[in-house]
Amino acid sequence: MSETLSQNATDAAPPVRTTAPSPVLHPLHPPTRAEIERGVATLSESGACQGRLAFSSVSLLEPPKAAVKNFAPGQPITRVLRFLGVDGQGSFDARVNVSSGELLEVRRQAGVQAPLSGRDFIRAIKITKADPAWQRAVRKRGIDDFERIQVDMWPGSGPLVNGADPGHRLVRAIAFVRHDKTDNGYARPLHGIIAHLDLTEGRVVHVEDHGVRTIPPESGRYEAEHQPALRTDLKPLDISQPEGPSFRIDGYAVSWQKWSFRVGMHPQHGLVLHELCHEDGDRKRPILYRAALADMVVPYGDSDPMHSWKHVLDASEASIGNLANSLKLGCDCLGEIRYLDINTVAHNGEAVTVENAVCIHEEDYGVLWKHMDIHSAPDFHAEVRRSRRLVVSSFFTVGNYEYGFYWYLYLDGTIQMEVKLTGIVGVSAVETGAEKPEFAPLIAPNLASPIHQHLFCFRLDFELDGEDNAVYEVDVEPSPPGPANPHGTQFHARSTLLGSETEARRDCAPHKSRSWKVVNPQRLNRLGVPVGYKLLAGATPTLFADPDSYVGKRAGFARHNLWVTAFDAEELSAAGDMSLQSPGDGGLPAYSRDRNIDNTDLVVWHTFGLTHVPRPEDWPVMPVEYSGFSLMPVGFFERNPALDLPPSKHHCS
Ligand code: CO
User: Fold this and answer.
1) Parallel, antiparallel, or unpaired: how do β-strands 259-266 and 452-462 relate?
2) Catalytic choice (183, 198, 302, 314)
3) Cβ atoms within 10 Å, residue 73
4) Alpha carbon of 191 to ligand 1 centroid (Å)
5) What is the mean pLDDT of each run of 10 residues along the chain (653 residues)?
6) Smallest Cα–Cα separation from 262: which of 489, 62, 505?
7) Ligand 1 midpoint to CA 297 (Å)
8) What per-residue confidence (pLDDT) applies to 434?
9) Which of 185, 207, 217 is nearest to 139 (CA)?
10) How far is CA 589 from CA 456, 507, 605, in A?
11) What domains, with CATH codes, occur in the chain?
């Protein structure tokens, strides 16, 4: 999917190494290089896989919650890594105990494929460019130099072309023209050509050619040296923290103000927060055991044959966590920054370190609270406290698009997830006068961009003051006029318990100021009310596609904004554990059966996102658009928990 996938990849045979793992000090420590190397060697030497191994991803198989919670520093830790990939027998899902060097299990599931890998990416380009039918289609468009062609691989999920074997590894390839090696190919789509590849057999199955269209005339270069002029009136804006940041990092454990948590990176779930707690007096109060992306989908609304099949699940099909950028100080992150590295596996089995994959820093965030006493003339005394937030973020490049995932923790107990969407939009070449702007608005001369959605599903494993929680839907409604409401002005908040999984498939309702409140029914605050946190959703759509469409079935999680399920350690991925080429019979709609979710260990899933009607301003690179949600304490604390903030002496005079 992305060139970053292949950056560190070579075509060499898998290495055989038996380095002893370096000691890890916590059961949730992300995989180390030594562990990855040992796991690859154990699997390669086991005889359980045949032929060439091509790895898609490695993840830590998290120990049971109880083992993590009862862990005390110094205790022995058993580490199990999960490797997904392809060998001579098809896709494998291997679990290796890298503490003992023992292969535990190799699972093989018919009908699904391991996520796309760097090897798929390299092979798809090679196989496509060597195919005579594809070459003929490109020549028909006046191009003989195939070096100039950029081939983008897309998952083969969804409708199958005649002659494709659904048991094989299938991908599609579309193409663009570059004027030179660094050009923006998306400015010049080779519209109408779709190659269908069988990577198991290493061949092109079929080339669709829907007819020649004019290649759009304009360049799409966005780098500084390609702009006619650059602004000269921006003065430096530096962030200075002369005494250093206020957070502490110990390995992958972070503490800041009253917050503490662990950071992880999962190949399919991206940035993960674990064991998020907030101090309250002498208590350390748990809020979330695990919070991460559970999947995402980008369905296209245009039925043009170049786009109608596009609905990539970037998390589970493309392993978004493997596509983390190495962040750069002053560019991606500004201020007093600390970074964390993460390790992944290259397709050939080598451990790859992505340096600076996670950025941690503090940001000033304006006013947190304020009041001026108007009765205190003549000095009109005012109390103001500055808001500050801790930012934990990563940026991922998935083909043409980038996604930034930003967790924010605030001084008043609020938690926020913000997704930043940028990069380059999908494109169509269109003949002058032939546009259908309702499906694909023009963004440049002869260049259109199809309407699409970006829908993210986050899995939030709550543990508010303990594992057993419950969820209420809170709607604000006007009261009916009558003796109790004589002036017709009354409105009230009505809370409804979501008692079972089927009752807890819910949608946003901005006209009711709807929110959802997670509570611990057994922990009452001093006012006698269960302690809680509310999920505050944005104005967020659900999936527009028909439930019976390919995307409707494969991304069923996107049909509702809220799902609540009983906790199950195996249920982590919203579109199912292995989604590539899956028809869509797993995932959240299957997890959500009818189990009880009242006063038990439960998981909240929130689908949110945006519908992107592309604009000329999104071209040639899209300014960041934002989407996300907040979690706010409701009776979790006794009062405003930020009264103990000192006034800011240095700036407030
Ligand atoms: Co978009």
Assistant:
1) unpaired
2) 314
3) 6
4) 19
5) 39 44 81 97 96 97 97 94 97 97 96 96 98 98 96 95 95 97 97 98 98 96 97 95 96 97 98 98 97 98 96 98 94 93 98 97 97 93 96 97 98 98 97 88 97 98 98 97 96 98 97 97 98 95 97 98 98 96 94 97 98 98 98 98 90 56
6) 62
7) 11
8) 84
9) 207
10) 15, 15, 11
11) 3-107 (3.10.450.40), 118-226 (3.10.450.40), 265-336+376-634 (2.70.98.20)
Structure tokens given for 647: 């006034």
Tokens, residue 282: 């002498």
Which entry of 252, 289, 300, 401 is annotated as an active-site residue? 401
Helix (H) or strand (E) holding 119: helix 118-129
Q: Where are the alpha helices (DSSP H) in 9-153?
A: 33-46, 65-69, 118-129, 132-139
Spacing, Cα 462 to ligand 1 middle (Å): 30
C-alpha distances out from residue 541 to 475, 528, 574, 614, Å: 18, 36, 17, 16
Q: Cα(231) to centroid of ligand 1, in Å? A: 27
* Catalytic-residue membership of 300: no
H/E stretch holding 66: helix 65-69
563 CA → ligand 1 middle, Å: 24
Report the DSSP pairing between strands 530-537 and 442-444: unpaired
369 CA distance to ligand 1 centroid (A)?
35
| Residue listed under structure tokens 């899956």 | 582
| Contact of 476 with 468, CB cutoff 8 Å | no
Cis, bond preceding 450 (omega within 30 deg of 0):
no
Q: Is 403 labeled as catalytic in the residue annotation?
A: no
Two structure tokens written together for 529: 């009310």
H helical segments located in 401-478: none
CA–CA gap between residue 457 and residue 184 (Å, rounded): 31
Beta strands in 498-553 (DSSP E): 515-524, 530-537
Q: How far is the CA of 399 from the centre of ligand 1 (A)?
A: 13
pTM of the predicted structure, to 2 decimals: 0.95
- Residues 329, 359: contact at Cβ < 8 Å? no
